[in-house]
Design goal:
Blueprint (H helix, E strand, L loop, with lengths): L19 H10 L2 H4 L5 H7 L18 H21 L3 E5 L5 H10 L2 E6 L2 H38 L15 E2 L13 E2 L14 H19 L8 H7 L20 H21 L3 E5 L8 H4 L6 E9 L1 H12 L3 E9 L25 H6 L5 H7 L3 H5 L6 H18 L18 H11 L9 H11 L3 H31 L4 E8 L10 E7 L5
Parallel strand pairs: 1-2, 1-6, 2-5, 6-7
Antiparallel strand pairs: 3-4, 7-9, 8-9
Helix pairs in contact: 1-18, 4-5, 7-8, 13-18, 15-17, 15-18
Organism: Chordeiles acutipennis
Protein name: MET25 protein
Length: 530
């Protein structure tokens, strides 16, 4: 588009908005979905030689809400594929909270996960939740196998019976349309290759051997073996070496030779050892993570690993990327940030602190420009345009209450700034009067000198402006994706500036209606190829 296309959105003299329609078009034009800088999730999974052979049909909504279930299911599959590609079994989950992602990665994918959170309450909750989850995990697996069996039967009824396995290939095409961000490493997909510095010829090995094992079991069953029909899904759940297949020709039924007895005894010992180790695959830890954190001080057996974060709050998302680039043990990162309003900004207060580590900006380009968003813009970036687009109503009344409260405390108490917060008082209030009094108590202001009639006078004075407030917030919602783009591209540019990164990209992981903060920053080190 021409540079002048959106020049008439604001008045040059007053700088006021004069063309709402053009404003909305400009916001859409500069949104992440329109810029062509994202790598499609399907292409990334294909490049990682991803398939669904390891799925067990377990539905995570059995033990978490729909939003969290969607996030954990999608992200854990990708994390597992990246871990397999890098040949690593250790995962560090920063800002792990109640351990939803950590526990699922450990139990579903047999990864060793350290979940680190700054809140001891969250860590203790994660530990207790993990204990309960392990107790019921076998039931979830059994249900999952039944689901998987049903799906396979349904597929079999809708397609011709074929014994050959067809391999999928991706034709050569650029992942990103016209992004200058990708120019330094020309991210393309050709014969399954996504990362320019890493070959993918060996990555299919583990998946191929798994498929070969499955084929072997299937053939053995068809030859009249005594293996249960449930062996196939069980093989998909257990580690590759957890099951030994004994030949039916070794001994007659009911007669165990010494060799088979020894084999079974060894298999039993292995199973017990595996069960014992699997019970400790998830380790919730309490620690406050900063850019200078030494992970080896927290994790004594730190090895080559991957770092993940599902909705890491504020500066933690930025620090996750800094730790990833600085620590040689961390071979890959997959980070989904949130809470942009809590980011620290280097140029927000015009402070000159070169030694300080800030949440924004990260990349040198924006640092050189002295770029600043400001708290209001970052607050706007947290809004969910896609949810509003499908009919979800903005919380206009609660925003109106908060705006009128601001006027009251400025005019009646002379307070223009406070370190205290009102929080979620609106949801706990029965009326505007109740809201004001509860808020004043939280702010430690004396509400006794403020009669109910005075409070209601303020309400009546401004209630006719509620429509203005709603319109203003709709404009903020429309602008939200543009501000999020700036923050996410800053993080991506930071990774592009590093010499030790083989590939980095932005990937849309989640359905934005279910999970508005849906973009992941993903990167792999140059020495991460397995």
């Amino acid at each position: 588009t021409d540079d002048d296309t959106f020049s008439n959105v604001f008045c040059e003299k007053s700088e006021k908005l004069i063309n709402v329609h053009l404003f909305a078009l400009a916001a859409k034009y500069y949104s992440l979905s329109n810029l062509g800088v994202c790598t499609p999730l399907e292409d990334l999974l294909e490049a990682l030689r991803g398939d669904n052979q390891g799925t067990t049909g377990i539905k995570t909504d059995k033990f978490m809400n729909n939003k969290k279930s969607h996030e954990v299911q999608v992200m854990s599959e990708l994390v597992d594929k990246i871990a397999n590609y890098c040949g690593i079994k250790q995962v560090i989950d920063l800002g792990s909270g109640k351990g939803y992602l950590s526990s699922f990665l450990s139990m579903q994918y047999n990864l060793k996960v350290y979940g680190i959170d700054s809140s001891s309450t969250n860590t203790n909750g994660a530990r207790e939740r993990n204990r309960k989850l392990k107790k019921h995990w076998r039931a979830y697996q059994n249900q999952g196998r039944a689901n998987l069996k049903s799906q396979r039967l349904e597929k079999a009824n809708h397609r011709p019976v074929e014994s050959e396995i067809k391999c999928k290939t991706i034709s050569e095409k650029p992942v990103n349309n016209d992004s200058s961000l990708q120019s330094q490493d020309q991210v393309t997909i050709q014969e399954g290759v996504l990362f320019p510095s890493c070959g993918f010829t060996e990555i299919a090995t583990s998946e191929t051997s798994r498929q070969t094992g499955v084929d072997l079991v299937t053939r053995t069953q068809s030859d009249g073996s005594k293996l249960s029909e449930e062996v196939l899904p069980i093989l998909n759940v257990l580690p590759a070496d957890a099951v030994e297949v004994f030949s039916s020709t070794q001994c007659k039924s009911g007669e165990l030779c010494k060799e088979e007895k020894a084999q079974r005894r060894m298999a039993s010992l292995k199973a017990k050892a595996s069960k014992s180790s699997e019970s400790n695959l998830h380790f919730p830890l309490t620690s406050c993570i900063t850019a200078e954190t030494e992970l080896s001080d927290i994790i004594t057996d730190l090895e080559d690993c991957m770092m993940v974060g599902l909705h890491t709050c504020g500066d933690l998302a930025a620090n996750t990327l800094r730790i990833f680039t600085a620590k040689p043990e961390i071979k890959a990162v997959c980070s989904v940030g949130c809470c942009y309003h809590l980011l620290s900004e280097q140029f927000e207060n015009q402070e000159d602190c070169p030694e300080e580590v800030w949440g924004f900006p990260m990349c040198q380009y924006l640092k050189d420009k002295g770029w600043c968003c400001g708290r209001n813009a970052r607050m706007s970036a947290c809004l969910a345009l896609e949810r509003v687009a499908v009919g979800q109503v903005l919380p206009t009344e609660s925003l109106f209450y908060r705006a009128v409260l601001q006027v009251i405390i400025e005019e009646m108490y002379g307070v223009t700034k406070s370190d205290r917060h009102v929080g979620k008082t609106f949801s706990k209030s029965s009326s505007f009067i109740d809201y004001v009094r509860k808020s004043l108590k939280k702010l430690e202001l004396d509400d006794s000198k403020l009669p109910d009639s005075c409070i209601m006078d303020y309400y009546e004075k401004y209630k006719h402006r509620m429509n203005e407030l709603e319109a203003f917030n709709m404009l903020k919602v429309v602008l939200a994706p543009c501000i999020e783009v700036l923050i996410l591209l800053d993080r991506l540019c930071y990774l592009k500036e590093q010499d030790n990164i083989a590939w980095s990209g932005l990937v849309k992981l989640f359905d934005p209606v279910k999970s508005p903060r849906c973009y992941a920053v993903i990167a792999l080190k140059k020495d991460s190829c397995f």
